[in-house]
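Milestone 3.1: sequence recovery, worked example.
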């Protein structure tokens, strides 16, 4: 823990939201709505999910009441921060036919929102860093994403109660917060009360922290926070096989397991929609009934769609087998070749929100076993 760590209580958390809003930021955080913990604009601490947790399984998500009143003791919900930084649908430009019949094209230059994200899990913090690399780190920068990202303030929350589908330890993305946050919180509930260890990770974070009713962190709170995060690492609900996943994917392209998972996969694309790192998009043009006004919109696309790889002769990946294999091998393997890291952060959303409960960790273990991995591990 940082030497300049501080402690705030529930009132300090309310004050944090107020300070961020007073600086002109739209504060987004977890809140209970429609039977789930979702990300939405919040106005104060009362909007946060105090006393709510979740029960997760493959293809299953349920809210559950908690007796301890914790606010951040829940796992990743159906949304990620990608929803705000890389929206599902965004207008690119519009065109109107003038009186002389000429078309006038106007690029959409909507000023980027200034967000403050409260409750960014370590896995999602890593996911934001991955999307930064994808959308701003190469030859072609997405200016709309960059505008929102540069104005975003990130308040990370370390995990102390992982879900049954979490496997961030396997992917090296949690449960402790890595770099990239402005402020980081660790929730502590014990005999000494309900409080939050808080530390700054940027100059902006230090500036906000200076406005909060905080006290210097005591040794007991530091120790309790550290222990709860360490305990969370030991209680992950899932894990990947202890091998180089990049090599596993490369050497398993002809595995029989792909037929097994293809028989279950609906190719609905839910896994790509909830994934915090999937970034693929397509464009669609719309027009009014007169034909005098038209717009081009960018929207999320999924590699599970048949038309994703469509060529004049037809789709390149026509089967569920080929499309699932493409997604899994890219996410866990060839993402390294493109962007220098895995595309998976271990949040488990793809497992929870798959209608038939396909589990990417189970599939990785099955591929490993098919290659004889279980026998080699047994003789090691």
């Amino acid at each position: 823990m940082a030497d300049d760590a501080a402690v705030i209580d529930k009132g300090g958390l309310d004050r944090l939201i107020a300070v961020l809003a007073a600086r002109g930021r739209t504060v987004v955080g977890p809140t209970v709505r429609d039977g789930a913990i979702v990300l939405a604009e919040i106005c104060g601490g009362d909007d946060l999910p105090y006393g709510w947790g979740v029960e997760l399984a493959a293809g299953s998500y349920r809210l559950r009441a908690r007796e301890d009143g914790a606010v951040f003791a829940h796992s990743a919900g159906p949304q990620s921060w990608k929803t705000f930084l890389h929206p599902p649908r965004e207008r690119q430009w519009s065109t109107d036919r003038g009186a002389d019949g000429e078309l006038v094209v106007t690029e959409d230059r909507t000023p980027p929102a200034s967000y403050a994200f409260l409750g960014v899990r370590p896995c999602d913090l890593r996911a934001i860093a991955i999307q930064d690399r994808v959308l701003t780190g190469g030859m072609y920068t997405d200016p709309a994403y960059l505008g929102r990202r540069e104005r975003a303030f990130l308040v990370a929350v370390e995990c102390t109660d992982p879900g049954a589908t979490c496997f961030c330890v396997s992917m090296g993305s949690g449960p402790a917060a890595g770099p990239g946050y402005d402020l980081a919180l660790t929730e502590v509930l014990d005999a000494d009360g309900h409080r939050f260890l808080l530390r700054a990770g940027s100059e902006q974070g230090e500036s906000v922290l200076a406005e909060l009713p905080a006290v210097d962190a005591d040794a007991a709170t530091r120790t309790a926070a550290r222990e709860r995060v360490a305990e969370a690492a030991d209680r992950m609900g899932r894990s990947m096989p202890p091998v180089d996943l990049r090599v596993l994917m490369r050497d398993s392209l002809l595995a029989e397991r792909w037929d097994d998972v293809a028989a279950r996969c609906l190719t609905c694309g839910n896994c790509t929609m909830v994934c915090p790192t999937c970034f693929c998009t397509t464009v669609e043009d719309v027009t009014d009934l007169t034909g005098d006004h038209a717009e081009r919109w960018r929207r999320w696309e999924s590699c599970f769609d048949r038309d994703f790889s469509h060529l004049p002769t037809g789709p390149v990946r026509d089967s569920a087998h080929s499309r699932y294999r493409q997604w899994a091998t890219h996410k866990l393997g060839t993402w390294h070749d493109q962007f220098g890291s895995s595309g998976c952060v271990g949040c488990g959303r793809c497992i929870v929100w798959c209608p038939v409960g396909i589990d990417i960790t189970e599939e990785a273990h099955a591929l490993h076993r098919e290659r004889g991995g279980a026998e080699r591990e047994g003789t090691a």
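The CA atoms of residues 56 and 164 lie 6 Å apart. Residues 375-380 have pLDDT under 50 and may be disordered.
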